[in-house]
Amino acid sequence: xxxxxxxGYGRMGKQFLQCFNNSKKNYKIVGIASKSNPKQIxxxxxxxxxxxEELINSKEIDAIYVxxxxxxxxxxxLKAITQNKKIxxxxxxxxxxxEVTEVHQALKNKKDNFxxxxxxxxxxxxxxxxxxxxxxxxxxxxxxxxxxxxxxxKIKKDSRLFSKFLGGGAILDLGCYPxxxxxxxxxxxxxxxxxxxxxxxxxxxxxxxxxxxLNIGNKIEAHAHVSLKKNLKNICQIHFEKAIVSIPxxxxxxxxxxxxxxxxxxxxxxxxxxxxxxxxxxxDLVSSVFLNQNNDKNFLVDIxxxxxxxxxxDLWLKNSN
Length: 321
Description:
- This protein is of the alpha/beta class.
- It has helices at 11-18, 52-57, 73-82, 97-107, 124-135, 170-174, 176-182, 278-290, 303-318, and strands spanning 2-7, 27-33, 47-49, 63-66, 86-90, 114-117, 141-149, 192-201, 207-216, 220-227, 236-240, 243-247, 256-263, 267-273.
- Helix 1 (11-18) links the parallel strand 1 (2-7) and strand 2 (27-33).
- The strands form two sheets. The chain has an eight-stranded mixed sheet with strand order 8-9-10-7-11-12-13-14. A six-stranded parallel sheet has the order 3-2-1-4-5-6, sandwiched between helices.
């Protein structure tokens, strides 16, 4: 049994809590720590901890979900590591490569105790994509395009999305999605290579629209676009030698989603029907891995992959034209 605690009770903390409504028997929610006061809206059987430290130090808690603002993730995770807690941390783990490196070093032989919460990776849609690659049905991959963007109508300097102090900006907040998608196509011989990037900043000094150009093993072109300024067509496209595979809902796939497959001779949809939401899949898989009941760790973003993602994010931010 895994006893979970939540640190941070904003939008994602509330979303995570809902996953326990129909949870499996091998995990449960025990308590929450929040700088706001959630006592009025939470179940009576939950422990409301007075501070993050109290929850981290509690013997009642085995695993912690961290959903605070971006700039606070590293310190909370480091404290949780010292108490031998298992950790699922919202992205990004750190606001720069140095912060993620510190966490990587602190984990040492505890790497299976940490995952970064990039939920789509746990959904059956990801398994379907990996099977396409494994079966080599459409030949080699030549190009990948990945977008994630939405228009925020009003820029508020104190908003977590637009505050430098809180680790805001399109690249830090959204960039991990396309980079983690590109990582599905890498292996020991084919690594991601940076080519160039660009971004536009807003009046708070953070980036709001940006692109990055990469290649994978000098064989696959990779292009990503993230934005807080534009409603992008949030899709991923895989250009094989013999087909183009489009993923219309890459980041928050629903219980019924599909891939669009277009070859020279036909177009069709390959449907994926699942029995629960994407966040439930994430909680189920992470809990079972923490309990050593599941070895499907390749579908999760571990600390080694977090380090690789952060390295590309840093290049994206530091080398833009």
